[in-house]
Design goal:
407 residues, mainly alpha, 17 helices, 76% helix, 0% strand, globular, disordered N terminus
Length: 407
């Protein structure tokens, strides 16, 4: 069914409230919100369970972000389904897969090997779900409302993470990790119902049948463009390394990890709200480099073993730097043909999530041999170096995209 182009969401400076008045966007947004909440709860529960059973910083870090390792497989094999095969039906099917996976984690006595296997399977399908959802978003709202819509979703992701970590910490005082998994299962089920009831079918943008060959063709075109390569590098590597720092919070401060994780989520929320809602596109581009620097620099304080309050403030300030992803995503969208925008956004998200898993694995592996504080400092310094060294290539990508030289 062709998409409806007569809908009233057309103002160039549309507000969040204006977006939410559209029933279809509101359904897509609510499903995303519930999915993030469920993912946060289940990740925190699994990380706590693995830490209690193994006392291994590496396994704990990987358990929290292990699903991201296989997102890249989805991006490299079947991501073209994000632009075809009836995106609403695809998204509903993938929500069903997520529901089954989270429900399986709630089974008491499930071996850790099986739990990690479930993470890998869910990560593969999660990348396809993200690409499909973002492709639908680009059709549900007009181009002028895309940045506010992505900003609102980013803000919600941060807000739900704050609530999820806080609620997860409280629930784990009264429930077992399996009980928390059960709560996450209920949230995932509600998300499935909301998406199925509100999101309509949209146009299939591909002219060829989606599959491995179509995916590879679009990916080759994506990575052959130097501007897109530079943007993807900066969307993936610095962010992923900082997530590696966050993955060590349980090992760094077992009794206060929830507070540090919540501080990070709060900083992310504030950054996305400020950058996505209060700044124009031009100002977002000009602030992007400073935000990328602030993402890593505050973590250098961990070399001094700061008190919890100071550490929480540093994490809060650093996490606001994640808002640099928005201007980079806008630029990537501007360099992407309409026919493959769902796949490209899926690849971007999958690569970012894969690097989160790699960052967690790198940080966890190093922390097996040195202290978590020293590891956090070293990983943050590496992230900072990547941002500084790659800046000229990002500037060039902006120049290719719109003739500016900012960022």
């Amino acid at each position: 069914m062709p998409s409806d182009t007569s809908r009233p969401i057309t103002p160039p400076t549309i507000s969040y409230y204006g977006l939410l008045r559209d029933r279809e966007f509101a359904g897509l947004y609510a499903g995303f919100t519930l999915t993030v909440a469920a993912s946060t709860l289940s990740g925190f529960a699994l990380g706590t369970l693995v830490d209690h059973q193994t006392r291994s910083p590496f396994l704990t870090a990987v358990s929290m972000y292990g699903a991201t390792f296989t997102t890249v497989l989805g991006a490299l094999t079947l991501m073209s389904v994000a632009d075809g095969n009836r995106p609403r039906r695809t998204l509903v099917t993938l929500q069903c897969v997520s529901l089954l996976g989270v429900a399986a984690q709630a089974v008491p006595g499930l071996p850790l090997a099986a739990r990690f296997g479930l993470l890998l399977v869910l990560g593969f399908f999660q990348s396809l779900g993200t690409g499909t959802r973002m492709g639908l978003l680009a059709e549900v709202v007009p181009a002028s409302a895309y940045a506010p819509a992505r900003s609102l979703m980013n803000i919600t992701s941060g807000g739900m993470a704050i609530i999820g970590y806080a609620v997860g910490a409280v629930l784990l005082r009264y429930l077992s990790p399996q009980g928390v998994f059960a709560v996450a299962t209920v949230l995932t089920g509600v998300a499935l119902v909301v998406v199925a009831a509100t999101v309509r079918e949209h146009s299939i943008r591909l002219t060829r049948r989606p599959g491995l060959r179509q995916t590879w063709t679009a990916n080759v075109a994506l990575f052959s463009h130097p501007g897109r390569r530079a943007l993807l590098l900066n969307l993936w590597v610095p962010n992923g390394l900082i997530v590696g720092c966050e993955a060590l919070f349980i090992s760094y401060a077992p009794d206060h990890a929830g507070a540090l994780l919540a501080a990070g989520s709060a900083g992310m929320l504030l950054g996305d709200l400020t950058v996505g809602r209060l700044l124009t596109a031009g100002r977002r581009r000009r602030c992007a480099y400073a935000l990328r620097l602030s993402l890593a620099a505050p973590y250098l304080l961990f070399a001094l073993h700061p008190p919890l309050v100071v550490a929480s403030v540093a994490v809060f300030v650093a996490s606001a730097g994640f808002a640099a992803t928005l201007p980079l995503q806008e630029q990537l969208l501007a360099l992407t043909p309409d026919a493959v925008r769902g796949q490209v956004q899926g690849v971007e998200s999958a690569g970012r999530m894969t690097w989160q898993g790699l960052g967690a694995a790198i940080a966890g592996g190093v922390a097996q041999y040195v202290t978590p504080a020293a590891t956090i400092t070293a990983v943050a310094a590496t992230s900072l170096a990547v941002t500084i060294v790659s800046r000229p290539f990002v500037v060039r990508a902006h120049a290719v995209g719109d003739g500016t030289t900012g960022a």
